[in-house]
Amino acid sequence: MEDTDYVKQLNEPARRRYREKITAHIGYDPYQLKKSDFSRDLSDLPAVEAMDITSYLVLHTSYYTASQMKAYKSLEAFNYLVCGWVNDLGTKEALNKCRLVFARVSVNYLYLLTSK
C-alpha cells in the first residue's frame, strides 16, 4: 500500500501507529478512497439513536456537556446540517462488517468571511 500525503507528513511513531490502526480496524487507508468507493444507500448507515450519540460525545469523549446535548439545536454542527452544508454522505464496509461513514461538507463563502 502506497503512503498518502497524510501518512507522509506524520512523524515515524505516528505513522507506525496509524498503519497499525488501519490494518487492525479498517483494512485499508481511508485517504486512498475515491468518492465512487462509497455507498450512497441510506440503509447502509449504521443504526444509531440519539442516546448512542449522546453517550459517545458526552460520556466517552467529553466533547460536549450534557446541557449542550439537550440544547442540540443551538450547536454549530446541527446548524451546518439544517443549512444544507452537509451535501454528501456515504459509507464503506470495513473489517468485521463495521462501516466507515464519510461526510463531505461545503463551506459557505460568506461564513468564511465572517468567521475570521
Mass-distribution shape: globular
- The overall pLDDT, averaged over residues, is 81
Q: Tell me the radius of gyration.
A: 17 Å
Please mark out the parts with pLDDT under 50 across 5 or more consecutive residues, or reply none.
Answer: none
With strands numbered from the N-terminus, the spatial order across the biggest sheet is: 1-2
The largest β sheet comes out as:
2 strands, antiparallel
Cα distance, first to last residue?
Answer: 39 Å
SSE ordering: HHHHHEEH
- Count of β-strands: 2
How many alpha or pi helices? 6
- The domain count comes to 2
- Give the helix proportion (percent range): 40-55%
GO cellular component, one term: ribosome
Keywords: Ribonucleoprotein, Ribosomal protein
Organism: Dissostichus eleginoides
Protein name: 50S ribosomal protein L30
Short account of what is shown:
The protein is an alpha+beta fold and 116 residues long. It has helices at 5-8, 12-26, 50-60, 66-70, 76-82, 109-114, and strands at residues 86-93, 99-105.
Name some characteristics of this structure:
single chain, 116 residues, alpha+beta, ribosomal protein, ribonucleoprotein, 50S ribosomal protein L30
Characterization of the model:
This protein is an alpha+beta fold and 116 residues long. The chain folds into 2 domains: 1-32; 33-114, no CATH class. 41% of the residues lie in helices and 13% in strands. The protein has helices at 5-8, 12-26, 50-60, 66-70, 76-82, 109-114; strands at residues 86-93, 99-105. Strands 1-2 form a two-stranded antiparallel sheet. The termini are far apart.
